[in-house]
């Protein structure tokens, strides 16, 4: 019986993700807002940076992950905020599908959103700070960014669902999510710093395992907790 249920959950998750991505593709409002924030932050950090005080390689990892976190929050808030119009969320919850599948679909769409912002922000930071990413550094940074994005998206999607019906959703989402982002962002930023410093990739193996472990814990825990967050 479990073999018959799994495809249904996967198919539902893909449909939810496709719906969200199509809506975002048509409006592009959240993506353009996040992209504008990311590029504006890159420019502001660049022109407020004193290269005689802090080396670019030391500053860039922090800039990169500040941009990822806060631009990602813009998209995560949109995840369930868009369902509030005409109470579309009620129709989604009334559908004969599991709520776990809804969460996985929302998370998948958010992962694509965050990854798209990362694909623009990473080259922008590399360009403005003249970072050495021409060789094997760029694939390694992209791998770290993807692993971190999975954990950030899982937590952010869950808290987006929890706060969507509150008056101060824009304030509560970062307040609740940011403490849970720390275990993901910290090893990701450290790994990024070591990659840019030209350290051997073997040195970041432990951090990649740590990111993978947090991803597994957050995805499973958030998927199991999600059905309880939308109870009236």
Structure description:
This protein is mostly helical and 232 residues long. The protein has one domain. It is 81% helix and 0% strand. The protein is built from eight helices and no strands. Helix 6 runs parallel beside helix 8. The longest helix is centred in the middle third of the chain and has 30 residues. The radius of gyration is 18 Å and the shape is globular. The two termini are 31 Å apart. The N terminus is likely disordered.
The gist of it:
81% of the residues lie in helices and 0% in strands. It is mostly helical. It has one domain (9-229).
Q: Strands, helices and their partners?
A:
Layout: H1 2-27, H2 29-47, H3 56-81, H4 88-94, H5 99-128, H6 137-163, H7 169-196, H8 205-229
């Amino acid at each position: 019986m479990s073999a018959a249920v799994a495809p249904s959950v996967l198919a539902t998750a893909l449909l939810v993700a496709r719906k969200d991505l199509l809506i975002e593709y048509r409006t592009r409002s959240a993506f353009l807002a996040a992209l504008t924030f990311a590029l504006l932050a890159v420019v502001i950090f660049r022109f407020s940076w004193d290269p005689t005080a802090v080396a670019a390689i030391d500053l860039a990892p922090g800039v990169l992950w500040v941009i990822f976190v806060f631009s990602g929050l813009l998209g995560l808030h949109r995840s369930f905020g868009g369902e509030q119009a005409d109470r579309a969320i009620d129709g989604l919850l009334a559908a004969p599908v599991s709520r776990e599948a809804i969460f996985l679909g929302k998370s998948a769409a958010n992962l694509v959103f965050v990854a798209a912002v990362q694909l623009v922000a990473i080259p922008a930071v590399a360009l403005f700070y003249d970072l050495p990413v021409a060789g094997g550094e760029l694939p390694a940074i992209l791998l770290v960014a993807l692993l971190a994005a999975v954990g950030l998206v899982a937590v952010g999607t869950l808290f987006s669902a929890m706060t969507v019906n509150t008056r101060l959703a824009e304030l509560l989402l970062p307040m609740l999510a940011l403490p849970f982002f720390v275990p993901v962002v910290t090893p990701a930023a450290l790994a990024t710093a070591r990659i840019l410093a030209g350290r051997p990739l073997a040195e970041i193996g432990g951090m990649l395992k740590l990111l993978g472990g947090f991803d597994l814990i957050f995805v499973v825990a958030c998927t199991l907790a999600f059905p309880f967050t939308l109870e009236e």
